[in-house]
Amino acid sequence: MSTPAQTGSTLTFWFEFASTYSYLSAMRIEGMARDAGVALRWRPFLLGPIFAAQGWDSSPFNIYPAKGRNMWRDMERRAAARGLPPVIRPAVFPQNGLRAARVATLGADRGWGPRFVRAVYTAEFAEGRDIGADDGAVAAEALEGLGLSPDAILAEAEAPGNKARLRAATEEAQVFGIFGAPSFTTEDGELFWGDDRLEDALGWAARLG
Q1: Nearest of 164, 93, 162, 158 to residue 131 by alpha carbon
Q2: Sign of CA pseudo-dihedral 35, 17, 58, 50
Q3: Residues of the domain holding 51
Q4: What digits encode the pLDDT tens for the residues 66-81?
Q5: pLDDT bucket at 8, cuts 50 / 70 / 90
């Protein structure tokens, strides 16, 4: 979904449901883009293949425990400062966000995508729920909360064409040189990485307009 903007510039928001800092960006980016006069493109992708290409089989926050401990404390501080609920670390981290990413791929074109994304992130990091559970409860409840039919949408999300779209997005992210999430790309090819670079990304995109 594109945020109405006063300029012709678009910022692409690359996010992964397993990503803690993507959660922080997702909860604030829409209003900030609107205020900056920048159109916004929500772009779910998968970090697994990107991490594998770097020789990692898990999140770097697991591979480097000291970094992970600092990240979780940083998340607590940032969430509190922004008025978000206290961060609850899911029992399994990183989470399997494949199903949610497939649904978000559909939603990106249908207007309800950002609300779905925020609902899933809230379940994951404010409630500590398993978004990758086999029963698909988190995605289904998020869709129901939007007044949508979860059975139909979850089935459509698993269709070959939609799966291919998500794979293509991940491949496109690799072409851009994206190595983590959240990342933000501008129309002139600039890449910004991390929630703490969101303001810079929006400022750059606004100047392009």
Answers
A1: 93
A2: negative
A3: 10-208
A4: 999 999 999 999 999 9
A5: low
Q: Domain holding 94: CATH number?
A: 3.40.30.10
Residue 4 forms part of a structural domain: no
Q: Please indicate, yes or no, if residue 104 is contained in any of the structural domains.
A: yes
How long is the chain? 209
Are 128 and 89 spatial neighbours (Cβ–Cβ below 8 Å)?
yes
Residue 185 φ then ψ, to 5°: -120, 145
Query: What is the domain count for the chain?
Result: 1
Query: How many CB atoms neighbour CB 127 within 10 A?
Result: 12
Residue 32 located in a structural domain: yes
> Does residue 1 lie in a domain region?
no
User: SS3 for the chain, per residue?
Assistant: CCCCCCCCCEEEEEECCCCHHHHHHHCCHHHHHHHHCCEEEEEECCCHHHHHHCCCCCCHHHHCHHHHHHHHHHHHHHHHHCCCCCCCCCCCCCCCCHHHHHHHHHHCCCCCHHHHHHHHHHHHHHCCCCCCCCCCHHHHHHHHHCCCCHHHHHHHHCCHHHHHHHHHHHHHHHHHCCCCCCEEECCCCCEEECHHHHHHHHHHHHHHC
| Each residue's pLDDT tens digit, 176-200 | 999 999 999 999 999 999 999 999 9
- 13 forms beta bridges with 42, 184
Whether 199 contacts 29, CB under 8 Å = no
Tell me which amino acid residue 179 is: F
